[in-house]
Amino acid sequence: MTINLPPLRELPADVKERMRPAFTEASTRRSHTPLAVAAAVALLIAGGVAVTHQMTRDADPADGRVVSPSGLDVDRCRAALNDRSWSSSKMVVFGLHKVLVGDDGRFCGLTRSRAIVMSADARPLQMEAGSLVFRSENIIAGVPPLGARQARARELSPGNSSRGSTASVVTPEFFVTYAATGTNVTEMVFDDRTIPVAEGTAPALATKVDSFDSGDGNPWTPANLLARCVDNADRQGTPAEELQGWEPLISTSTTGDRGMSLAHLGHRKWATCTFSQFGADILATVDAGDPDKTVHFSGFHLGSEYTLVGRTNPLAKTIELYSGSTRAAVVDVADGFFIATVPVSTAGTRTGVPDLQVIARSAKNEIVYLGGLG
Length: 374
Prior knowledge:
single chain, mainly beta, Immunoglobulin-like, six-stranded antiparallel sheet, 5 helices
């Protein structure tokens, strides 16, 4: 049976115009992003009759900045926490710093050479429907107050000057703030709310343990020596983008005594770092000099030995160092660079440059350089 509905009555023009903005104007509330119209609103205006099906929602301010950790990231945190059942599906990244959010509410920080976790007896600081759970030199993390969309950790000095976090991610479940320089937080700022953090009330600084993004637990492998140097450079303020992509090239003996490592960035840039059982220096780029010359650009004494870093003809595969007629060392060459350790008695010095003669040979054993160190 067919039922014939009566025709819809046309609404006056002024009424239709008053209705139109309610359907066509996007919300301008701070930090809210309207979804695409095709995905959010089905709109029909016909003769003054409107049918809407609205599916808009507040956009997550951390959308796109929270990623999934790798299996290695999770394993590093499990080892640091001494808990093989700990799990995480969310991670925030600030430069060289990763912060994993545990499914049980425990956080874990990772750098190239360290894992950073709270002690088992640490207690969170409760704050107005939220809490401060994790605190390291660079990271403050926890649960935000209800409705918070922005967060900042701040340190106020007696002179009323302040410094604080430079980046943050806030979700309804957690917040993470990052400070490029170490900060002793004295207050948390969520949107326009300031919450004082009295001295001694925040959790103690998290504990750092050796943990390498190479997956190798030996702290003296070339990759892990490089990781330590990169982290130290990051701590000294080198921009993270300048520390990405470096790979080990050559290094001296990794027995735990003092040594030196040479790294490369796409075989276009080079950097050195010295290390010892007490730690590592920062990764420092070097001026490679004229590749047609053989030059000595760094070195150090250790006991009766002198370790030097130099560059020679890029065609060279080995280099022989001589003091008079005595051969002091034979070492391999990579990218034209070499690291050699020679007895101090044979090195001598000439205006700070070892007084050694050099024979550089190619893969075909042809001499490609013969002379002194420049």
